[in-house]
């Protein structure tokens, strides 16, 4: 039985946004356009963040940790009362789907821009939600959604359903507490990991199990309901391209969608919303199989990250719709008044390293800009929703998403061409990002051909992560920078260390090894070993050009520093302009149109004449917190066995044994905070 709509809500003139980053900036942009006074909240880590700078007022919540600031219900409510905010917009994440938060606002007389607590509760418990959806006639994926959470029972249910299965946190979302389990042998480890993530993210470790469809598409429907009993769907989005169950590229409308299927899915989504007495913006997510059958996954009782693609094809401001519904107004349009125009894509820009299994990255953004004019892009067709600017710090405490790039075109082909040009025009420096990976995705033949499913990245791993063709200018530029730096480091009073030609008629020669992120420089003795490129540089004096020997070819090379990070590399008279900057993690070379190349180097002159031993240590790949130590010191392990678990930016990362051997000692305990590059443990490989 459906719940009756709630009564109309009062109007308000002051809005507090209980979030951070790009969504806080985006909500405040619409609120200001509607004449509302905007209030930001912030943690100590965000004291100088963009959303704080753009708000009319800002209130401190607490320390950097989200649980002590953005997730602290009483602190957010107190902040709203202090500044006289009549309403709170939760954005997404944090408290956006927290029923207790909504109830606290109701008690304080503050309007929540979202659904009632009862609707959040109905969909927040995924097991109960499945039962409600079955009653509403919404198709479901086969699975186990019961209350009995005994490990043995869950394992038995997985066997009944048939592998592969998907373990999901019952109270979860956003890919947290979720694992694909391929066989019975891996079930317990996956269950333990899901429960740890779920407890950390939601304070609830109950799990549900679903049959894992091997090649489904992830298609979701945007729904909207008001307090007058009206409900509509604003069409669908395809969000199939994901990594770790988190979306990377989204588009609207979904490719290949027929009018009949769109109507069937849309009406099912509205039925789902009305079944729980929903109010405001919500998203009903479905798995769409190749035969056109679709199954309910979950309902997100909030605004989605990817809502801008729906705005692009409908011409509607969904945040404005949210605020008007919260003020008690009816929906601005009826179903028959909503239309689709053109096609839209959204690409999520993350501070992460795709070449290192998408590890989150931290640092200071030395540049964050997009040159629309230089790329001949129409500003009406390109939108950059960001929560950062040049000079901002990306910390370890929150989700690594920096911005969303949204584009529109007359059709999918035009929109995709605009997306690729816009990605090329996006200049982000100082922090590792997935920008180049997004370019590879958007230009992939299978993506262009609409061959989509939720395992797209996994299926095309060989081509998406294939070693890029060596850009000679980029490698030569990196080599010249490295050679010049190493030459300066060699300077001393000894004539044997000079590099001005005093070599008993022998030129000054340095050999270095270059490799991109993710390759191993430890065994860089042979050219092209493990992706390593060896460069030999020779010159008579500082004023002479370098003679670079690369893959048996000798090139006359000069390096000229231009303005800012720009350099000019001249190889045998051919001059190329590059962007190059030194970072703690190596050298980043921008050589458009190929994109970003991140390189490391080491001098290898001495390696040729001595034995080199591989380091027997594991270092932290990012800033984070140690979650668990999985083995005892001295315990023998085989290569690949998990040794310890770290957590950063809401995700777990497992450190595995690099070889057969044993852990001599751990340098940190569970709960300790570590910085990128910290030595986590001493590992002793077997002889």
UniProtKB/TrEMBL annotation:
PROSITE patterns: ATP_GRASP (PS50975), BC (PS50979), BIOTINYL_LIPOYL (PS50968), CPSASE_1 (PS00866), CPSASE_2 (PS00867). InterPro entries: ATP-grasp, BC-like_N, Biotin_carboxylase_complex, Biotin_carboxylation_dom, Biotin_COase_C, Biotin_lipoyl, CPAse_ATP-bd, MCC_alpha_BT. Residues 11-462 form the Biotin carboxylation domain. It comes from the Bacteria. GO terms for molecular function: ATP binding; biotin carboxylase activity; metal ion binding. Keywords: ATP-binding, Biotin, Ligase, Nucleotide-binding, Transit peptide. It catalyses: N(6)-biotinyl-L-lysyl-[protein] + hydrogencarbonate + ATP = N(6)-carboxybiotinyl-L-lysyl-[protein] + ADP + phosphate + H(+). Pathway: Lipid metabolism; malonyl-CoA biosynthesis; malonyl-CoA from acetyl-CoA: step 1/1. The keyword Mitochondrion does not apply. Its cofactor is biotin. This protein is a component of the acetyl coenzyme A carboxylase complex; first, biotin carboxylase catalyzes the carboxylation of the carrier protein and then the transcarboxylase transfers the carboxyl group to form malonyl-CoA. Acetyl-CoA carboxylase is a heterohexamer of biotin carboxyl carrier protein, biotin carboxylase and the two subunits of carboxyl transferase in a 2:2 complex. This is Biotin carboxylase. It comes from Halomonas urumqiensis.
């Amino acid at each position: 039985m459906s719940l009756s709509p709630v009564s109309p809500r009062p109007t308000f003139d002051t809005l507090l946004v209980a979030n951070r980053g790009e969504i806080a900036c985006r909500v405040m942009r619409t609120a200001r356009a509607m004449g509302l006074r905007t209030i930001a909240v912030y943690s100590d880590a965000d004291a100088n963040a963009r959303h704080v700078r753009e708000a009319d007022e800002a209130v401190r919540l607490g320390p950097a940790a989200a649980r002590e600031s953005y997730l602290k219900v009483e602190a957010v409510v107190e902040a709203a009362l202090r500044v006289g905010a009549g309403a709170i917009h939760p954005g997404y994440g944090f408290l956006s789907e927290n029923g207790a938060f909504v109830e606290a606002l109701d008690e304080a007389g503050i309007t929540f821009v979202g659904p009632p607590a009862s609707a959040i509760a109905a969909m927040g418990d995924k097991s109960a939600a499945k039962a409600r959806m079955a009653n509403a006639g919404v198709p479901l994926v086969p699975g186990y959604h019961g209350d009995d959470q005994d490990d043995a029972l869950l394992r038995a249910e997985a066997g009944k359903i048939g592998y592969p299965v998907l373990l999901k946190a019952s109270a979860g979302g956003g890919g947290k507490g979720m694992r694909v389990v391929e066989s019975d042998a891996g079930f317990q480890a996956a269950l333990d990991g899901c429960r740890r993530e779920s407890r950390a993210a939601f304070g609830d470790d109950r799990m549900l199990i679903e049959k894992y469809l091997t090649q489904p598409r992830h298609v979701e429907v945007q729904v909207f309901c008001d307090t007058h009993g009206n409900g509509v769907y604003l069409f669908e989005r395809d969000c199939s391209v994901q990594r770790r169950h988190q979306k990377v590229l989204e588009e609207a409308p979904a490719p290949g969608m027929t009018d009949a299927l769109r109507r069937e899915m849309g009406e099912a989504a509205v039925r789902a919303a009305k079944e729980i007495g929903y109010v405001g913006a919500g998203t009903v997510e479905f798995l769409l199989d190749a035969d056109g059958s679709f199954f309910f996954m979950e309902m997100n009782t909030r605004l989605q990250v990817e809502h801008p693609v729906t705005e692009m094809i409908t011409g509607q401001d969904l945040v404005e719709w949210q605020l008007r519904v919260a003020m008690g107004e009816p929906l601005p349009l009826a179903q028959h008044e909503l239309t689709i125009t053109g096609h839209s894509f959204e690409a999520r820009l993350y501070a992460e390293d795709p070449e290192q299994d998408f590890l989150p990255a931290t640092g200071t953004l030395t540049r964050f800009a997009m040159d629309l004019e230089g790329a001949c892009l129409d500003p009406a067709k390109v939108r950059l929703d960001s929560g950062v600017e040049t000079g901002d710090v990306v910390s370890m405490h929150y989700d690594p998403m920096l911005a969303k790039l949204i584009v529109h075109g007359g059709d999918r082909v035009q929109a995709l061409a605009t997306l690729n040009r816009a990605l090329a025009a996006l200049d982000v420096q100082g922090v590792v990002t997935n920008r180049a990976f997004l370019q590879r995705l958007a230009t992939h033949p299978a993506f262009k051909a609409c061959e989509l499913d939720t395992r797209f990245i996994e299926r095309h791993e060989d081509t998406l992560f294939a070693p890029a063709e060596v850009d000679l200018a980029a490698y030569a530029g990196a080599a010249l920078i490295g050679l010049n730096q190493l030459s300066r480091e060699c300077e001393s009073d000894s004539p044997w260390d000079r590099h001005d030609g005093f070599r008993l008629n022998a030129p000054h020669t340095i050999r270095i090894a270059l490799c991109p992120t993710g390759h191993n420089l430890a065994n860089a003795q042979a050219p092209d070993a493990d992706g390593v490129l060896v460069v030999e540089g020779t010159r008579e004096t500082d004023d002479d050009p370098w003679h670079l020997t690369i893959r048996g070819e000798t090139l006359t090379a000069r390096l000229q520093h231009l303005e800012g990070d720009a350099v000019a590399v001249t190889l045998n008279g051919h001059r190329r302009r590059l962007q190059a900057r030194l970072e703690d993690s190596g050298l980043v070379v921008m050589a458009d149109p190929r994109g970003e190349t991140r390189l490391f180097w080491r001098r290898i002159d001495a390696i040729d004449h001595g034995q080199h031993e591989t380091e027997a240590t594991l270092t932290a790949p990012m800033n984070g917190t140690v979650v668990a130590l999985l083995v005892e010191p001295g315990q023998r392990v085989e290569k690949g066995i998990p040794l310890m678990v770290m957590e950063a930016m809401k995700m777990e990362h497992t450190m595995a044994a690099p070889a057969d051997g044993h852990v001599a000692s751990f340098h940190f305990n569970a709960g300790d905070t570590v910085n990128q590059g910290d030595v986590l443990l001493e590992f002793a490989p077997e002889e």
